[in-house]
Amino acid sequence: MHYDRGWRSYVSTAERRRQALRKIQQLRKKGHPISPVTVEGRAIAKTFWGKAWCENLERYSDFANRLPRGRTYVRNGSVIDLQIASGEVKALVSGSEIYEIVAKITPVTKARWKSICKDCAGAIDSLVELLQGRLSTGVMERICREKTGLFPSPNEIQLSCSCPDWASMCKHVAAVLYGIGARLDQQPELLFRLHELDEKELITEAGGALPLAKKGAAPGKILRSDDLSELFGLDMARSRAPNAKLPGTAGTKSKHAKKSRESRSL
């Protein structure tokens, strides 16, 4: 890599993409699972969880100076690999070189998680509703609340990048943090994995809701067979064979047949 007065020489976006592709091919040959961040259009995130993560980043003045460059990098495909695990995010970003980024997230305390579950109890009916972000304003505000929700504050994130920039929040790190938001668009459950949490606990606190669907109808709203009998005047308790004739039909048919025979004999 060439330097000019201590600064690395400019590398075009096209060249960064070429070197990123070479790195991806090398890693795949070695069996390394590659998960690049792909952003379509201008919006980095489009769903509730992705947008909420990005908005949380922009809420902190500590990150303000470097975030715009990070947005550019993530949009042009510079985050060539992003892996989210318990308490840690590892990524590769294509810049003047391929840089390695690690972001360590302090998991929420048990007390904070218990408080979130308690405050949201009874307001979330299903995992589908939770992960799709189809929640009430109160629930969303509680889960995303600054400092006491699930999104980390700057002092709960330890950032490192292999680039020569002295700042802890370099443009490569910023790109990775936005990349997390884009990834939550596709896999919102990763937010809970990052904190080593079980999202089903939020549902359990809601009163034993089913894990993947809304609760069934309340007992008072289910019609029993006795209710149907009363409503339609039917004897629901009696079981009949599929081809059984209704009472009285056999006798009626027999009488009609007898009259028909008598009329033919006249």
List keywords for this structure.
266 residues; alpha+beta; 11 helices; 43% helix
Concise structural overview:
Helices cover 43% and strands 12% of the residues. It has helices at 13-29, 48-59, 67-75, 110-120, 127-132, 137-143, 171-186, 190-194, 200-205, 225-232, 249-265; strands at 3-4, 7-8, 79-85, 88-94, 98-105, 157-161.
The outline comes out as elongated
* Estimated helix fraction: 40-55%
| Order of SSEs | EEHHHEEEHHHEHHHHH
What structural class results from the helix and strand content? alpha+beta
Which consecutive residue ranges, at least 5 long each, have pLDDT under 50? 1-6, 208-225, 227-242
Walk across the major sheet and give the strand order.
3-4-5-6
* C-alpha-based Rg, rounded: 32 Å
Q: Overall pLDDT, averaged?
A: 78
Biggest pleated sheet? 4 strands, antiparallel
Q: If helices are DSSP runs of H or I spanning 4 or more residues, what is the number of helices? A: 11
**Could you give the count of β-strands?**
6
Q: List the domain count as a whole number.
A: 1
Fraction of residues in β-strands = 5-15%
Please report the distance between the alpha carbons of the first and last residues: 117 Å
What does this structure look like?
With 266 residues, the chain is of the alpha+beta class. It has one domain (3-205). It is 43% helix and 12% strand. It contains eleven helices and six strands. The strands form two sheets. The chain has a four-stranded antiparallel sheet with strand order 3-4-5-6. Helix 2 (48-59) packs antiparallel against helix 7 and helix 3 (67-75) packs across helix 7. The protein is elongated. The termini are far apart. Mean pLDDT is 78; it is low at 1-6, 208-225 and 227-242.
